[in-house]
Design goal:
The complex is a heterodimer.
Chain A (H helix, E strand, L loop, with lengths): L1 H36 L5 H15 L1 H9 L6 H20 L8 H27 L4 H7 L3 H26 L16 H36 L1
Chain B lengths: L1 E5 L11 E2 L6 H12 L6 E4 L29 E8 L3 E3 H21 L16 H23 L7 E3 L1 H21 L9 H26 L24 H17 L2 H28 L21
Parallel strand pairs in B: 1-4
Antiparallel strand pairs in B: 1-2, 3-4, 5-6
Helix pairs in contact in B: 2-3, 2-4, 3-5, 5-6, 6-7
Classes of the chains: A mainly alpha, B alpha+beta.
Amino acid sequence: MAAFFSLLRRLYLSLYNWTVFFGWSQVLYHVLITLKESGHENVYKAAEKPLLFAQTAAVLEILHGLVGLVRSPVSATLPQIGSRLYLTWGILWSFPETRSHVLVTSLLISWSITEIIRYSFFGFKEAFGFAPSWLLWLRYSTFLLLYPTGISSEVGLIYIALPFIKASEKYCIRMPNKWNFSFDYFYAAIVALGIYVPGSPHMYTYMLAQRKKALSKSKRE
Amino acid sequence: MKVTLVSRSGKEIVKGGIELTDSATVADLQREIQKRTKKSPDRQRLTLPVPSGSRERPVVLNSKKSLKEYTDGNSRTLTIIFKDLGPQVSYRTLFFFEYLGPLVLYPVFYYFPVYQFFGYKGERVIRPVQTYAMYYWCFHYAKRIFETFFIHRFSHATSPLSNVFRNCAYYWTFGSYIAYYVNHPLYTPVSDLQMKIGFGFGIVMQISNLYCHIILRNLRKPEGDGGYQIPRGFLFNIVTCANYTTEIYQWLGFNIATQTVAGYIFLLVAAFIMSNWAFAKHRRLKKLFDGKDGRPKYPRRWIILPPFL
């Protein structure tokens, strides 16, 4: 019985990882093709469908951690997925004025390359029981460049969106109301920018430590 | 008596060890360590080595005991593991500053025209519920400060200095967040009846909470050496952490009367934090009072929030 569930788990996770891998491959493909054929202004439109699908699917990973299907701590994945969903739905999808900016291109390239490597890594592990050492190296090395480029794109796009957020009053709750509550999406965006200040070095040094652990372990094996 | 003092990684803290008389106490050892390392006893965490592979929690040395009690037969040498807990503050200092924030900041929102800086010009009408809320809130935090200096007997004398920043951030931020909404010029009061029920229930719970604290105080000796007893009497007969229970209900009363999302968020977070503490305390008491070797067995009780937890 236990062996059956273990097999089912492997099957499900293989399917999940390779499906989302395919989604991100499509994102990268459409970004590069559109860049070549028309220009960075149209990149979002071309990549929108696979982007919304692949990035939103990541919510399942929180579930996987909660029910114990995977070992990753929820506390590590939550901030990562949170910022991704915020940029995807809270900025790009909600404020179309941002979509034509060149930072969208750098954002999607950084994200898609990172995710293609990450999902294929897990896809290999679940399906075949191991991942090739070059893939492990890529997983723990590309972030050195892609974290700075990705984070800069995220911060840049939130900043670009600010005037549109303020003008639109979207997602704002005003007083008076019977629950005596208010929410200002503009100030929340400022707070989000603030979080990047301690958050980015924290994430980067965490990955550096992970890199040291993972690559030295594989050397010894 | 020769004490070898090592760090958790095995490195010798004091080269050549420390020489003490055979009848020396742990407190004597702490004084010697302070002379050699300049770290005060409050910062010293001294434990007996745990056999490798054992999942047991290490035995922490009690400053009142003599070192002989921790040796097993071979009473001339002892190896002790040292951990520096970092700069410490007394619990009284920590509690005083974390409670001072809400006590002072809330009335600022009530008495001063702060809302002008948020863009609300013009006269502000103060409703009765806002006045009662301010008195209720300030009474609560004044009570807490009073209890800190006159009621509580702490299990430890000190807490790490970093907790001052963390705890003050928590209390002061939430205090300001709630004060902003309850004293807001566009605040919408609830019905008179709901307000009275809320504050009435809250006051009853605050008084119950004070009584719970007095019961807990009487479980410990004034010399302040911590220690745990089975709490009995009043609500403790049915719930282990009746003090947390009454505190949570007290905040519920405040929120029923003032009805702000900010207040309810604070209630949820506080209840979550207190529940974690309650689980740990309940588990510790059950482990300590296991019914063996003449010890009483911890009775079956709710942990913090009957009928759920």
